[in-house]
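Q: For a teaching session next week I want to show students how multiple molecules come together into a single three-dimensional assembly. I've collected the sequence lines for a complex. Could you give me the predicted structure tokens for the whole thing so I can convert them for display?
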Amino acid sequence: MSDVQIVEVGPRDGFQSVGPIIPTEKKVEILQALYATGVRRVEATSFVSKAAVPQLADAPEILMAADKLDGLDAQVLVPTARQAERAITAGARHLVFVLSVSEQHNMSNVRRSTTESIDEYAAIMRMLPQSGKMRINIATAFDCPFEGRLEPKQTLSVLQQLIGLETPHEIALCDTTGRVTPDHVDALFVEALEKFPEIQNWAFHAHDTYGLGTANTLAAWNSGIRIFDASVAGLGGCPFAPGATGNVATEDLVWMFEGMGVSSGIDLNALLAVARDVAALPGAQTGGRVRDAMAQKLITPNRS
Amino acid sequence: MSDVQIVEVGPRDGFQSVGPIIPTEKKVEILQALYATGVRRVEATSFVSKAAVPQLADAPEILMAADKLDGLDAQVLVPTARQAERAITAGARHLVFVLSVSEQHNMSNVRRSTTESIDEYAAIMRMLPQSGKMRINIATAFDCPFEGRLEPKQTLSVLQQLIGLETPHEIALCDTTGRVTPDHVDALFVEALEKFPEIQNWAFHAHDTYGLGTANTLAAWNSGIRIFDASVAGLGGCPFAPGATGNVATEDLVWMFEGMGVSSGIDLNALLAVARDVAALPGAQTGGRVRDAMAQKLITPNRS
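A: Of course. Below is the structure for the complete assembly, covering every listed component.
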């Protein structure tokens, strides 16, 4: 058992940002390689409009491949009830529903008001099989590219509405822009955990765009969070910002937690090999530090 | 008054790592530009063997230029009593003496045993003018490139020996390799602050090589530390590791602290202009994220 649970979101959040279509076999190979490093939770793909995100048009095949890996908890992201239905039909049992606290961001992301998305959530919960699990990803939980800083009370109000309808299995608060600072991460989690004791699982989704991916993850850890999203090789970059990095790199989190004596269940050296493979994908925008640092091999990694 | 004190070490730790000699006038221009952003503490240069570090052969001129900037606290690094004498003769009143906890690192850095360096410290304290201030930089306080992890008790023992001789004005614990994790930063500072209440000022010197520059700084902040070294544009890179980043970037720390409502006294936008200039120096190895993120301008930095 690991002391911290890292959810590898590269196959969804990462691949989605890559322009050139990655062959399905290559995606499956990476998924299997990640599994071999010890990864046991993955955001495998997203059921979305093929026209909007052609890179993820192979969602059913990817889900099928993920389900063959024994003990792998493969979640898939769905933005609407219609896509949730598609995912469930394809065999998905762990859904991730995404909505934004920011009206403007939600509109731009899923062409719905936040209230409409909350209704979609209720509809999806009604169609979820008995054995199914639902995670909610709260986008712009701290900060919005359009509206700037969001106050904890705005995010708590959206959570209140969602939880009032139906209790999800897990809630992830997402720093969509990478602009949150550790004090804000701490403040929101502390309040949310206190206000909603019925939520069993809380997760934090960090971006490293402003260099605070690990610092914010540490702040969430200190607030009691034990589930963290991360993307192998830091794959993610924002399509609107060439050169800007996206998700915090999985290898950076594994490095930090293992160094703190917190077991992640993931073999860092094996993960670095996958990270180098992923970083070599045409069109990949990568981030993180540990990959480069370990590549130099100047320093014997004697941490004992 | 700022709530956090950032010591800009780019002109010493950063420049020292740059191969091509930076003209003295350019160094002075950067120093003045940093001052104009609000920087009030700087590690201006180092008095070292010109043969060993030709880049810093202009130490006396740099010190003279720094002293012309009203209210700027310009410290200079000295590795030996002989160089301290040179610095004092040149007018230096704020010295930084560096020694390593690790015998092997100290030998490789200054060709002396740690015990010999402690004797040098005593000799320097005797020659320090009444108005002078002494900072001690404890290199490899957490981790050594040769010996790996160093236990807090090893570092505390060296501190005990130094403080037993004479109380310095300030002590900086330095993560020389960038491999320390936040738990270790916290553990050592908590113990050091408790054990040596006579030390008025403690500082932390972070490297970002493994992506933990901001996370470790946050850990030290949470342990009560209020003085942090950082290098503009993350200038620093290790000469033995092309591509590996060095010091945590000043702009990343300013971004983090200001976002936390902690005033640094430094104007971020003005600093970013200097950071871009520094990053353009031939041979510069840079780091940090905020410089790239802000260059994209995709996100209106509305943080209010």
